[in-house]
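Hey, I'm writing a tutorial for new members on how sequence and structure tokens pair up, and I'd like a real worked example in the thread rather than a made-up one. If someone can provide the structure for the chain below, I'll link this post from the tutorial.
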Amino acid sequence: MSKRKNLFKISIVTSVLLLSSIAFSGSTDVMASNPINYKNMPEYATYESVIADAGATAGNLGISVALYDIDQDGIRELIISHGTCLADWVNDIYTLQDGKYVSMIGTVGDQGMFYTAPDGNGMYFVWGKQGCQRITRVTKSGNAITETEIESRQLGENENYTEFDNKIELLSPSDIPTGSNSYDVEVTAPDGGVNMRCGAGVEYDKVLPDMIPNGTVLTVTQEAVASNGNSWGYTNYNGTYGWIALTQVTKYEEPTEGAPIPHTRYVINCNESITLRTNPDVNAAEICQIPLGTAVATFGDAGNGFISVYYQGSSGYCLASYLSAPVD
């Protein structure tokens, strides 16, 4: 079932759709968005001349852009949103043929908001004006874009415009963040691997038929918080992009020469959790609790019945009797 939240206010200012000042009824959950570090994405450099030409044509009116892999084929499409007024506003969509030739493949009319389709099939486009709302699905097949209407209706007197999770942000090229806060993680899941999904949460569809196996090192480029409060990371696995639960991975650091090699162990022999301590002593201060079944990185015997442990950014010591034998 599609996840929906109600939008109290859509503000259209000087031919640019602004989606700030959004208030939600009931709760104030922060909705997950797709990555916006477009300039760090490998396709951006190839699209850059098209973006520059569109910006020059628009002049002071400006343009907004986004990169998103519509059909999940490993190549992100470019969306350029531009116009002089609501009447002529369009969203031009480009792709890369053979990974290097830019080709325009379609247009979505009107100012509006793009989202990852909740079922992972393409994008949702939401348009609203004076109490009217239209929602369409935008899909890509080969080098063609298809827009299929989901609903078009007049809203009720007290009904609010619809917003979905995983917004695809349209940004002015000058507002695209530069640099990267990416980091590497290693899959260390109790089930032997982690699923990749089209959104940040277990309610979203898988984008891979099989789990990414333990021991795989991935680069996380953006984080989001799921509806249950757990953190998820956006990553790439063999050319497929999606979200993984960060509870199923540990931060990975390349071992230095001569440094101990970490081994994965699991928390066992307890009712709920075990204690990570500051020193290898049962009277040492507690750092945190590690739940039963959790995978941790260990670095060998620390004496006094303890093992050196790394867990979710914290280093400490746990009793060896509560940890399994190394699994790698």
